[in-house]
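Bit of a strange request maybe. I'm writing a small parser for structure token strings and I need a real example to test against, not something I typed by hand. Could someone generate the tokens for this chain?
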Amino acid sequence: MSESEFECSVCGETFDSKKGLHIHEGQKHPDKQVQELQHLLEKIDEEADKVSEIKEKKKELKEQVQDLKQEKRQLQGTISNLEDTKEELQQKLESKNSEIEDLQEELEEEREKEAELEAETDSQQRKIEKLQEEKESLEESLSQTDNLLTKLNHQVDQLDEDIEE
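Reply from user aminoacidic:
Good idea to test on real output. This should exercise your parser:
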């Protein structure tokens, strides 16, 4: 069979042209064309079903995309709220840190004052003890002076009595 010959797939007869083969098939094998057309219709139906499935999938995907876009907007809102909250918390934290630093400085100043007061208290206590010792010494001197005065007065009285006699 040459390249210019066309063979019938049903009976094997050959033709010089494609048109001749088609005429032969239409006249001698009409049910083959019906089968081919039915086969083509089935393929078209299958393809139509596939197109419907694709359209349905596309619709579902569009809905999913819309849902995802909505979810994204909600998440962006949540992120924005969280960023605002974070900023507020950072400001509060900075404020608390500042308060802590101020209180620590104040505490240190109070401790320094307390140390100064303790030193002053110790100094005052030493002064009190020294003054107490001086007081006791003066009381002792006063007592001795009082005793001497009493003795001297007694001697003066004795002298007065001796002079009068």
